[in-house]
Here is the input.
Amino acid sequence: MIGGLRTRLESLAHDLPQVAMAVVVISLGVALASGVLLANRSLRERFDGSVEALAGVADLQITAVSGGTFDAAILDAIRAVPGVKAAAPLLLAPAFTRHGGEVTRLRVVGVDLLDDATVRVYRGPGGGAALEDPLLFLSQQDSVLIPRALATRLGVPEDGAFAVETALGSRRLVARGLLDDSGVALAENLLVMDLFAAQEALGADGRASQIDVVATMPGAVDGLREALAGVLPSHLDVAPVAERRRELARAASAFQAMLDAIAAMGLVLAVLITGNRLATLYQGRLREMAVQRALGLPPGALVRGLVAESLLVSAGGVLIGLPVGVGVARLIVQPVADTMSLNLQQVVTASGVTVRPGPLLAAGAAGLLAGALAALLPALRVARAGIVTVLGAGPGRDAAPEGRVKRLGRVAAVAGALTLLVLQLATPTGGLAGLTMACVALAGALGVEPGLRWASRPLGSVLGPAARIGVEDQGRSPRRAVGAAIVLMTGVAVVIWIGSMARSFESYVVRNLMLDRESDLSVDSGFNDLTVGDDARIDGAMLQRLAQIPGVRAVGAGVNAVSLRPETGLVAADPIRFRDPAFGAWPLAEGAWPDALERVARGEALLADATLASRRALTVGTPVRITTPSGVLELPLAGITPTKFRSPAGDVMLSRAVYQRWWGDGTITQAFLVLEPGASARDVTEAIQGTLGREQRLRVLTRDELAGWYGAGVRRAFSFLDALAGLVLVVVTIGTGDALAASVLERTREIGALRALGLTRRDIAAQVVAQAVAIALVGIGLGLAVGHAMSFAFVEGLIPSLLGWRLELQASWQVAALAAVLGAAACLVGAALPAARASRMSAIAALRCE
Amino acid sequence: MGAVVVLEEVGKTYGSGHAIVSALDGVGLAVPEGEFVSIVGPSGCGKSSVLNLVAGLDNPSHGRVLVEGRDLATMSERARSELRLRSIGFIFQSFNLLPRLTVERNVAWRLERIGLRRREVRTRTAAVLEQVGVAPTAWSRYPSELSGGEQQRVAAARAIAPEPRLLLADEPTGNLDSANGRMILDLLRRLNVERRTSIIMVTHDAFAATCGHRTIEMQDGRILRDVGSFAEGAPSLRLAVGAREFRQDRS
Here is the structure.
């Protein structure tokens, strides 16, 4: 075994530069895969850990059906229900702190500290009591318990003060106790406050976000749930904690599946490039292997030996790739967390990456498998090569003519992909979309070889006689080039797919959100600048004062909320916003009532967005029932608007007067101002900031600034995809360079002959560049087609199925042009080295080459 | 009659220090226009080094190599390539046809590179292929679909297509059976007679060595013997066709 290993290593050492390149490619694939997997798992662990740590030993969880907070006075009634061992209220709110120029997202949790230990675990340093002096803690309103790891990260010593931004403004808090890294401290970035202090700090007097219930008999949870449902008012919902966890896990899994797909794509690219590289390596050793076979080595043993060698190569790649992957994970974890927050509508924190063996093992194993897979095809090919042919005339470079089966396969793949795309257009579904994407990618890959053949003739005529030789040579037997063009096609398609997806989100979100936000100015909480959403509440009473500011013609407010029964987002707007076009438009799908907007403004009907209407099969006229704190609200559906992006489940739009009446909530999330003709937006902004803005932390934005802020939020959420697209382009550069280098190596003798027959060094370099141009044309052309087709299937089919949003594909020529330019640049950069190498080749040495 | 190729006291060494190997040592040679020179000698005697130096693929360590009166050492890389493209034809032992170009394209590309118009390229390609005896049915085939003799004839067509004044042949019959070998030698002779192309042929084949006007025997990087010369009017008559035509031409 050792002898075998040594032989393999010696064999690889002879082709060190080529082996090194294969190692680099595998390591890049492994780095991409392990980086994404690590970031993904770290966030998921934190997310699950937070959910679990916060839930503690609770069996049931009581929350408001309409989302948000509810009156905590119900606690006594809950505790009185037989079978309830403990019931603990919890108030949750997002907050931020700044440390060393960085903004850290926090969650403020208000709990009844004297009682909460029955549900959740609080441990101080060394496992002791978290609070040495509970009385001091409770007597000071600014007291918080802080996990030790977080305190270290923020540089907050015990009893140290630090500033925290909440929706109501900046607060100074003091760390009066440190939590050991267990129990609730596992809920990442948590600040624990006394419930009453938190209620006061967050402006939620007497309110709770949830009540966690521990059953006396864990086996009788279903019965207890029924008993509690009997006691609770209709606007409160009780559900087993496990059910809530499952719902969250389902939502998180869908997002993670998308990231895993990107990681897998990195490995697929690695397989393609490494396969090409190994094929060249084995081709160069064909004669040696023919001799071995002539001396009695069976083909099976030859294949096994070559696969073993490739496993050694991939082991090297894995060893390098895994540490690089940890770096990649650290690089992308924050943007991924932002994207996850946006998709899940939950606070997902990203304080570093936990290096777990699972993702590393998975990426490592995938890297080894990729190496073995990459070696298999070239190994089988060289093992099948005729011994006499190889030992006689040397290996031929002529491609075997294409058989009927292969040709039919190509036609069938293209026909299948087109059929699926048409089906997708007619009935978009998640499963069909996945199949369509796979089929489109396959059809694109199979189209590369004929594409290179067809492109060679016209391209040869254009590029001049010397370059034409290279293009024709490649067109006749494009085996090497096919690999590079597939890699390029995949790269361009991925960039377009990623770009189109982000662009679709951005433009659709911005366009749809701005439809009814056409007013001159918007006023909302300054806290929104720090969050991924715009849901921070402000006092509704200020609307009258806003209306009195000189230059303001009309004011219309809105409030965004969620409802759990049914699961939907709520967009409540003042009647004037439905009536006065200066505030914006509410475009309605065909079939809406003619007086739909007036009926909604009067509080007699509501609107649903396309996502909700599609998910719940709602039609105009259907009564929609929503459980509110005041009972069940039932209003007919007057029309269907484009998707509003409040909830992945879809949104309902109704009059704010109805919302105020049924939800008993006078706060707002945004106020929109229409100015008098000739009034200056700047003057009005300054007037607001000078009065109200000073009292409450307000943000005043013009229409363009608001659109820009929404766009920036989406771009930030998708920024990690840019990093991935960059990595893909690096892989494309290497792939193209590798394929062309292999081609140069194969053509060494020909290049020598060409030089002897009068071609200049520049002519030889031009041939290699021309080959790169052909690869670029075909790869980019197919990449554009495949990328757009995949984007269409993904946006129309998979996003609604995975994330819930129903988007429209925004194909952007800028993204396509960028992908094409970057792809071409990657290709030409990749060609530079092989071209230089080919042109520097000594004609005499090349002619002597076997 | 001017010399197409002149080698003046040419030496070529490889390596450095103790590992220095002398491939050529003080070789002097002049090849007049229209002369067919055969260079013979054992392996490693420096035959191929002479060809490489004449083709401008390599530089002498000392001495001068002049082709068409121009010192190759003073020419740029690009100018030497241009010289090879227009004035020198090269025939290799292992043909070195481009395997993924058709027979026609293998010949045509040099003409295209020279800058001939498309129609002229087509006409001249057809003419040289006919001249070397490649049937039109084979023109659209690829090299792998041809016999060794056919491949070498295509290689010859490629070499003579730009109508070079000098043809270099490195063991042109080395990979061929005797019948095909004779056919190629006959072809070279005809080219020499019909076009007055100067030919320098390196060979191991004793029979082939006597086909030219002049035979140079080399050993250890030096010229051992130099027999016969075109100028002296003593052409070899070994090949019937070539000899007859040569006689006619001479008369």
In short: The first helix of chain A runs from residue 2 to 14. Chain A has four domains: 1-51+241-388, 67-234, 448-515+710-850, 539-695.
